[in-house]
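Backbones bend. Our protein:
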Amino acid sequence: MPISRQRLESLFSAERLSTYLAHCDGDFDAAVSLYRWNAAITASFWEPIGHLEVALRNTLAAQLAERHTQLGRVGSWLDDPGRELSERARDDIAAARDRVRQKGKRASEGQTISELSFGFWRFLITKKLTGLWPDLAGGFPEAPDRQRETIEVPIARLHDFRNRLAHHQPVWNRQPEDRYKDLLAIAGYIDSALPSWIGATSTVARALDGAPVEPTSELKP
């Protein structure tokens, strides 16, 4: 059964659809096709970005655990005995531990790490925490250099992109092709075989090929 324009605008909001209408010169059917394509891109990214997020957090956590041990510290690096993390990071860790306990589990290092967001790991690589970088850099043995920006810049772009995915915002005009390249690049810096493993089941390329509009400067910078 077809659904009316009025009903679609009611369900998805005229404001949300206005971005697509503007790009399609007011053609509602074309705007809906573009909206559907955006949803397809969003869906296709969740699998590979999920793989990268898990690999990234485990890589960084392993580097921090090793650093913690080498410094002769007891307990977990999550306790931040050297007060090297930001206040925000410490708050994130405390909140993650609370979430684990609310699930009736022990707030072990592994359980806590699994509750920390992509943003937590992204901000560990920022300039504010450069003291950690020499050790974190070891988690990216395949990177072309040991410059912090080589890792931080694409991860920052992916963090923003992931947030847009999570909030069902337009991503078709945010260079999704380039964000996929960022994703595979970071994966390759962690392990040279990881991009192929991720790509083996990824549907991102197929989703991008389904563009209902002609490529523009927004799609192909």
Observations:
- The two ends are 39 Å apart (CA to CA).
